[in-house]
Batch of 3 targets.
Target 1
Amino acid sequence: MVETVKLTIDGHHITVPKGTLVIEAARQVGVMVPHFCYHPKLKPDANCRMCLVEIEKMPKLQTACSTPAAEGMVVRTATTVVNEAHKSVLEFILANHPLDCPVCDQGGRCDLQDFSHEYTPTTSRFIEVKRVFPKEYFSPLIETQMNRCVQCLRCVRYCDEVMDVKALAPSGRGTMTEIKHFTHHELDCEFCGGCVQICPVGAITSRLSMYEFRPWMLKRADTVCTYCGDGCQITIQTKENQLIEVMSAQGAGRNNGDLCARGFFGYHVSTHPDRLQHPLIRRNGELVQATWEDALEWVAETAIRLKLAHGPNAFGGLIGARCTNEDLYLFQKFMRLVVGTNNIDSSARYGQINGVRALRRVQGTSRWTVTFDDIVSAEALLLVGTNVTETNPITGLKVKEAVKKRQATLLTIEALEPAVGTISNIANLAAHHFSVQPDGFKPAVLGLIKAVVEENLVSQPLAQKAPGYVQAVSEAVRRLSWQAIERATGSSSQSFIDATRSFTRTARAVILVGQGVLRAPDGSGLTATLLDLLLLTGHHGLPGCGVAPLAEENNDQGAVEMGAALEYLPGPSDANDQAARARLAQAWKEELPKGPGKSLMEMIEGARTGSLKAMFIVGENPAGSLPPSAGTMEALQSLDLLVCQELFLTETARLAHVVLPACSYAEKDGTFTNTEGHVQSVRHAIELIGESRPDWEILSALSVLMGYPLEYGDAKEIFKEIRSLIPGYGLLGPAPTPPRPDQAVVESYLKTGYSSGLAERYTLGERRAASGERKDFSLTLLVTQTLFHSGKFSTRAKGLLQVQAEGAFSLNPADGTRLGLAEGDRVRVSNDLGEMTTTVKLQDRVPVGLALFPEHFDQEARRLLRVSTDPATQVPYYKSASVKVEKAK
Amino acid sequence: MSVGALTKKILQAMLFHEIWDAMKVTFKHMFHRPITFQYPREQRTIPDTHRGALALLRYDDGRERCVGCDLCEAACPSRCIKVVSAEDPSLPLQRYASEFYIDITKCVFCGYCVEACPVNALAMTKLYEFSTHDKRTLLFDKTRLYQIGERYIEDGKKYLIAHHQEKDDQMSREYRYYFPQSVLKATQAPPKHLS
């Protein structure tokens, strides 16, 4: 029971939890206390003095933003004394404010403007000249106008307390205080846009939309960001069908108003001039503009002809996980019913499938058993291969909050060195950090399990319930020697023991699994091993504990749940599950196709060998994502029919026979399912660009022409159908209710399920050369995601390109010295597959022996990569390669 | 009706009284100065407060007054103004109107836009002759508005003074509001996006 206090504010009686600030209590009874420096996300600073209120029995006026409510307090916010105080505070602020509201982007939604209208006399007693700061160029995306600053320091505090970036600082004293960054060159930070959003006046504004709008012209649409699995709620503001800016209100969505650079500055993709606006059809080898009727009829005719000639299994379907649930659902229904094949896959195949498989195998859920709130309130967090602040920045914020504000113990196993840099580095916050090479995640996890077993930290209830399982795992880890683990991870056995002790001590533990594990060979096995760790420590099944695989694309989770994968039907239920098949057949009034189906890599192989004749590809670009060594280009070229639904003329779309223009997330309605399984509404912000159409509409039109109509009035109707098949899907509430682990599945796993693949899961595997041993010019090239981009999609956002416009070959300064490379040098990177020339960037955070290259600009780097396919989950892996590095002449 | 009244009526009818009565007015006007102007040979003197064609004004040193704040657009009841503002390529962070349109066919000449302008960049002139063979020429763009402003600068100034928006020339210079200009540091290279 929370302790409460009763107080009176302007005659309203209110009961609030103890510790609530007076300003918050006042807000609850509808009394607005004017303020600049207060913000619910930040610690009270009470520097602006605007929120002064009168409290009975206190001799002086008190700042409402820093005074906690106490029992029997009587607060008055509108007395003569208080109003006089407001007047004089504003008079001081306005003494230096330039009053350039007509040219200020904040004009019309400015706190200072509003309060001035409400509280000040129109004249000022100050006759002195106003301060004018000399203007310095600040940054390409964020602009400062220090003359307008009211020195509330919200931006500085947000950057420090919430983002943990510490890029801004006040310099100077008194009225001459100026917000500055630390360096002489332009601002170099995470560009989360938080300072722009939190500034109460127009001192910090976005340069991307500068002077393009006035606030009253804007139309807003609450929708969901499309750049990562976090599913942040954003408000897109538009003016006459032009995207103007993105913001996220305090308290909105799962992100609570926080955004990252991608969300805040990456919105110009939808109105990029290269957007496809008309259907294209291949005539005489050239893609030429066509009408929708011609294009669709040609596709339908050709598809029917090929289906009659080669049967439905000569077709394949691939969809991108950036599409809405409605698109994904209709796509798999289209492939299964209209075409009649199980050859369906989505970009969830690149990694998300690994996580879902492991969760389903061990605990019978296909989603997280935790939510973001559980991450915040966790006592111990283990991050494996996530680099979470760059791949999923908002999940990263939750981790930062747990560690910084709630003193959670953070354990990280990352291919990262703790180093202070311009962008945040999660390894800096870790209590126990294991810096490993990308192939060292598994040995490090096994090291933790070995420590659990050898230090007798195995949960007693589990040992009694499943002695066979504990016995088998213990034997498996005892077989591994500490020396081998130490050699593979570069960390001492003692550090594993210490880390395990601090992990097992806690009551609430969450394990976050990132792309380093999921998009790697045997990602599914390692995720299951992490679940083993949680089972052994006894955390598994407890409230607020669980393993959480992070999704890379915004609707990876939805793609699996909508059944856009050969092994899953909507639900997801297994494709071989007879009961689910019967239920679906009844709902669809049609038998489901039988047969195993082909995965992404199998489809490409099929296309190469000629068993696959036609492919429908929706919003996915295998020719651009997979390395050339996979032979995707050649395979797709040999198809008799390739239909692409795309926003842009991508590498894959260039090979297509017909390209149908689809619309982006900013133009369509539907739902996205984020990484924690929360289904959120996507709403259109602008009208459709050109002749583009939502993906589901295109599929629906095609199905009619192919003689099997799947007709819907709008996306809502599809969602209704989804809900009729998956009861309670997407309750659209403020927070998701996570599923509980299925006890029957857990028990069968503990009894027998664990044994399959146990030997492979509990071996260290082959090792590549470890750090420090390298004498030659070789490095491990790892193609990774960076903070400022998401896939190749965001490389068309002009805002993000101003921060990061090209890829650089990042390596540790020690490696740089060893190879004789300095920052900015051109290097030739090569191996037996090919070569590329790029620029060197020296970064302390890159472990020795590793070189990182952003996947968003990897057109060249992909030539060096080789694809290997996971035999169990069919996940292609192509992220790393051994390369030779030399200075380019 | 009494006998007297009836007699009077008959007498008036016989003598065509109504006609004489009406002709009285006509004859009276023969001795007046003519009221009808022989437009366009004769032009009328127009008061300073007259709401004629809109013009954009410049300061005496030739700088554009308009800062592109869109307030005129917001104030316009007939929605005939469109302002496109941008950052001045020669002055970092200075806002200016890169495009400015007034559709004079829609304009109701209410003068609200002039009142809304914080820098008195808009003024109304005594120009009211808009007749044209091509309606498209009535969409005044920025160049046209500044041309009108240059040609009828005196009208514009008088309008502003007559409507109490500006004091006379000397005083207006004193009271004029300048937005503080941020100065680039001399040591600093021009920013990337502007070079």
Target 2
Amino acid sequence: MTDLTKLTIADARDALRKGDVTSAELTQACLTAIDAADALNAFVHKTPEVAKSQAEAADARLKAGDTPDLCGIPLGIKDLFCTKGVPSQAASGILAGFKPEYESTVTSQLFDAGAVMLGKLNMDEFAMGSSNETSVYGDAVNPWKVDDRKLTPGGSSGGSAAAVAADLCLGATGTDTGGSIRQPAAFTGITGIKPTYGRVSRWGVVAFASSLDQAGPMTKTVRDSAIMLRAMSGFDPKDSTSANIPVPDFEAALTGDIRGKVIGIPKEYRMDGMPAEIAKLWEDGTAMLRDAGADIRDISLPHTKYALPAYYVIAPAEASSNLARYDGVRFGHRAKLDKGDGITEMYEKTRAEGFGAEVQRRVMVGTYVLSAGFYDAYYNRARKVRALIKRDFDEVFAAGVDAILTPATPSAAFGLGEMADADPIKMYLNDVFTVTVNLAGLPGIAVPTGTDASGLPLGLQLIGRPWEEGDLLNVAYSLERAAGFVAKPTHWW
Amino acid sequence: MAIDTDTARRVAKLARIKVEDAALPALAQEFSAILGFIEQLNEVDVDGIEPMTSVTPQRLYRREDVVTDGNQQAAVLANAPDAREGFFAVPKVVE
């Protein structure tokens, strides 16, 4: 069997069960591909020893007939997940040298299911960014390329997206606070789902904005997302916001039959100045779902335009609190102190040296909106607007809408460095279609459905009812089949 | 709302991030741009709306109030930049 790295998780699972391939072979193929792909800067901590020993254990399990879906499947893990004894830095200088003494719940569950960890993946520092340009490891690079420029894989899960799109691993973990799974998935022509808030444990995942953060899979197909999401999900007593409800077999929901499903098309997502090719992609996707028997309905989500400003109060506020723990005392970097420096100087110098510019900016904005005299004007007002944004969705779902179709991003991938001089808000606009979903705690999935004029992938987003990821994945599966997106980046790295 | 350099300095102090004086004007300008963007929220009528605390209307999970973990001093201190005699070490706090 050639090109083992190009297998989907579903196909690899079947081949492993039949004995057509071993996890050791599959893992070695991925490790070889990773070593040849340093130009993408996707894997930032390679763990070949861990991978080989996990693959060996998986092969023994497979031989014994114990074959969970992910048994023997090689995956990449975003650097945001704490992995025992393996560097876990959230792509930040402030966590330089940090090796957790514990394993995140998500990676524990994946490993219990027999998955193999190939290494840790690049990302924006503390998941704050939309282009993977705020990473202490340097930029991750999109395997897609149409001219001399190097393109962003998106962010914050840029390394995960690049690794999956370039066939360096069969799937990867991502996390999504404002669009950090869905935007990079769209920029690289892969699938990524952010589940309902509370579906996947946040324990052991470095916190950015705790009321918004959710982990999810980034994969080559919708079926693979269904398989991987099931393994990542479930109640965890160590996360107080984890939901104690059963996890269904999401893959079993993929019938492809969406006849009679009501799909909402929100008029507020038709932004001023939307590029014609994004508008066309959206219309084409709508037509595909209609042709598959769905009932298309125009809907209104009136508070959509206030989602980004509300997010840029709430997320920095929570970040300023969460990132207070990086003080140079318990883990990571501590600044070299001058004679006479006290503990305050230690904090201030450590945080100035350890945090990059975007993280410092957001921590300070968060500090400001929570400070005395401004708490009501900014933070409480944003939380009220958030309640209204969620109410918009509640009303639409109560009126019978099963899923909502929108573009995933306002454009295709842009060049690395192209936004360097832009004002930060321009970068924030990347999340304009995705951030509402985090604020409302809903599941959202990005599916590649076409390309722009230059040949770069573009994706659509489907938003589902809370806890109904199975239904959402089935609509996504139908869209995936109708779109028939099979393009792959040309190998240049 | 325009943020002046004094406010930028105060915020940096509150956040415990050292910012050189020369960098404060640019920082103040960035804050002003971001806060200007956020001020759109003032257009929304939020009368009678409760600020959201949780997206899922669930009571936080509770458990018995018993010790579930412990005796891990070495693991707790393993990543400390400076640990001595079983403690985290920091510069002198009390004169």
Target 3
Amino acid sequence: MSALRGRAFLGLVRAEARAFWRDRVSLFFTIVLPFLFIVVFGLVMGGGEGAVAVGYAGGAVAEGATLERALRETEGIVPTPFGDAASLKRAVEGKRVGFGVLWEGDRLGLLYEASRFQENFAFQELARGIVARFDLARQGASPAVALDEIPLGNPAAARSFNEMVPGILAFSLLTAGLFAVSGHLTSMKARRTLDRLLTTPMSPLGLLLAVAVVRLAVALSASLVVLVLSQVLFRFEPTLDLAKFLALVLAATLGMMGLGTGIALLVRRPQSAANVANIVSILMMFLSGVTIPVELLPPFLRAISRGLPLTYLAQGMRHATGIEEMSAGRFWAIVLGSLLVGLVTFPLLARYVVRPERR
Amino acid sequence: MRLVLSFALAQLRVTLRERETLFWFVLFPVVLFVLLVAIFGSLGREGTIHFEVGFLNRDQAAGEAGLGRRIEAILEDLAQPGADGKEPLLSLHRPAGTGDLDAFQAREEQAVRYGTHALLVVVPEGFSARVRDALSSRSTTDAVRIQVFRRAGSASSGFALSILRQVIAGVDQGVLASGGRFRAEDAVVVDTVFLGSARGAEVRYVDFLLPGLVLMAFFTAGLFGVPGALLFAREQRILRRYWVTPFSVSHFLAGFSVTHAVVCALQFTLLIVVGRFALGAEVSFASPEAALFLVLSCATFLAFGFFVASLTKTGAAGMALANAINLPMTFLSGLYYQLGPLPGPLRILLSVNPLSYLADGLRRVIGLEGATSPLWLCVLVPILWMAFSLLVAGRRLSWDVGR
């Protein structure tokens, strides 16, 4: 009897795997999208964070030479000389340099490109440091007080691509779990496949477990492929803690399937469920520190971010891949929290989602 | 003509009745607009960023209230909420009373390491005395150093550090001035100039984003709308039914184009209303050149939609292809933010992406500078794409199942 059940379950798993493979939209969101993210962000950020090129002109006169020295002594920039003000302005406008510093004999011009709003605030901070250094140098003084910067944590985190990869991995776990229930089960309902399956001896829990097994396998393989790809193509430098990584992948996928339950309970049509799942995942991607550091968000979005599961999954993944340090207690709280969401919502799924459609 | 218009009206009704269409083509651009403005509209501005900073004044602990205390006072000021009730820049964490300073430092270092605090600032013992000695020695000596612990790669550590650098630069100038080595009145006069802006100020993000989102909305309407409507209608044999009536493919195309134009007009109106009245956008599209670019965009993406539809056989495959194209094309076009220098393969993608030329051209004609391509190229590339798309679609697109 149990052998029969085992065989039936394996049959269900095989059928679910085939259905997943044929569902091109799910395939896209679970496997292709993270891959695309890695390629796009890898090409943009994979070369490592270079220092900011700062153009300057007016270096021919005596104080211009002082400016040149002040620029050379400033960390994190590459001073780039220009023959005259016009060529410097063209370089700033053409975004060939981050910003420009122009010595006009009696005043210092700081030139920024007006539409670089995502960088100008950082350039302005750098420029303030340059002005302070130049001010002292002009009067023949050198700083009496300075900062001794001591970096803590994994130096690999200094490269923002290394920070982003675990975030994308966490995002792929979110979509794998979220779309599993919201998209797949509602679609089975709409096509009446679920009604037919429920007339067989198959238990709702068995079906759910088959869906979960397939999604877990997919999430795990997709994560490993993304990890290897990031390492091979873009020099991602993880220090993988395999046990923690596996625990997080398992718990997160189950937990996110639980989150998908909520969507499946709210909406009935598969397309609407996919839309809600899409908007939830896109909002989370922007607000969970995957693409933009949470600390840079305005206060009300930071508060929202604290309530989003992806924020914690991304942190947990950064820890499991050795990019960020975290207390063991916090990491296991994230894993257990996700697992708990999954375990609590599975009976709910079985009771309210995996049931015949009422007519 | 009546046939075309009645088909367009029917198609529009179908489109507007579909929740998915309403969601993706109408609601989603608005949601994204609000979200992006909320995130990037005030990026890095005071009142929107906040850091947790540990401060340990060992100088004061040694009984030398002085420079360490001065730095602490400035940081205390920064930790006060703004007069308008805005969040303070910092929350300052200091040891309670005369507790164990080493234990406090260890705790704070861990908080920085774990990312719960952005920085730990440690003013060393004997700091004030060493600065005084350095100033009185009359020679140019190495600066006396304050330790700052930051987290590698953390954006908040980086920002907090740049603020601290300004604080220290101010203290430093004060110290040097008191020692007669710096004259504040002779400090250099600084002019800040924003190039490429008619107003001489930074372009507001909401103004930059609005044309980008209008184009994104038009693009998704073409990219998803055309293959979605056409391929599923073909699969479900709806198209076949048209062809047994006097309704021809050219009638269908004309009616479909009218529907697409109305959807684009609806998207445009909604985004303008939200941008102007809810988000404070000030750019104006009321010029013939802007109207021309909007029409060109609408037509280019309609043709592009037919091109994508011609590459696949089923609706599901069409949607998957559209999804795969959507992300790289919209991310690599400067619709949402200015693109910096890109590596080789992405530069090639950028140089053939019609979205980037349309965005560049539209922004230029509505008075937002920062365009990188000449205007004629911003018109030519989309026209070439339109011609290529129509050519491929004309050759490959099948109007019936199995034909």
